[in-house]
Amino acid sequence: MKKDQPTRLRLVKAMEKELNYKRFLHSMGVAETAAALAMRYDADIEQAEIAGILHDCAKYMDDKELISICKKHSVPISEAEYDNPALLHAKAGAILAEEKYEIDDPEILEAIRCHTTGKPAMSLLDKIIYVADYIEPGRCQAPNLSIIRSLAFEDLDRTLFKILEDILLYLQATGARIDPMTGKTYQYYRDELGF
Ligand code: FE
Ligand code: FE
After folding, report:
1. How far is the CA of 1 from the centre of ligand 1 (A)?
2. Is residue 180 helix, strand or coil?
3. Which is nearest to 11 in space by CA: 22, 27, 34?
4. What residue spans define the domains of the chain?
5. What is the pLDDT of residues 116-143, one digit of tens each?
6. Topology at the third CATH level for domain 8-193
7. Burial level of 10, CB count in 10 A (0-12/13-18/19+)?
8. Does the pLDDT of residue 79 top 90, yes or no?
């Protein structure tokens, strides 16, 4: 029997129920922005939209729940993540997307999994979700947002690099602990772009 495909309506309704309203609106903004970027870069629009809707689906979990779901699924937890378990919402989100929301598309699951830190050699979908999360219309605090928003529709890799650079500068300025993967991603794209 053909498996019942998840629909955007089912997922949107689930997120409206699970997330607080601000987070829900953010998720809708990411979904729409991701869909627009998918149109621009010839990616799969449905994949982008679903990954956007679900990317923060584990945001309602507290630190203990995040650590426990990751342990249960043998997901390695770094020191930075033990320090700040909220970072785990991406990995936990990929688990929930698969188990609770029945998403079996590995590309969607991976885009959810790497949306907080990025990773070297991201797929087109990974990049679209990463960038959409940063520029969706509800965002207003990051520096250079208007430049990054227009660059996003011109050159996705340079946009990714600019976002990583701004995030690292911000983390350094505030003295926050930097997840090593964010640094690795930055270095990978700096080399890739020849900067
Ligand atoms: Fe997130
Ligand atoms: Fe987000």
Report:
1. 35
2. helix
3. 27
4. 8-193
5. 999 999 999 999 999 999 999 999 999 9
6. Hypothetical protein af1432 (1.10.3210)
7. middle
8. no
How many angstroms separate the alpha carbon of residue 2 from the centre of ligand 2? 32
The 8-class DSSP code of residue 86 comes to: G
Q: What is the structure's pLDDT at 3?
A: 47
In this structure, which long-range contacts are made by residues 110-116, counting pairs with CB atoms below 8 Å and at least 24 apart in sequence? 111/47, 111/51, 111/55, 112/51, 112/54, 112/55, 112/57, 114/90, 115/55, 115/90, 116/87, 116/89, 116/90, 116/179
Question: Which spans in 55-105 are helix H?
Answer: 63-72, 79-83, 89-99
How remote is the CA of residue 191 from the centroid of ligand 2, in Å? 27
Residues around ligand 1, an ion, CB closer than 5 A: 56
Evaluate if residue 151 carries a pLDDT over 70. Answer: yes
C-alpha of residue 1 to centroid of ligand 2, in Å: 35
pTM of the model: 0.95
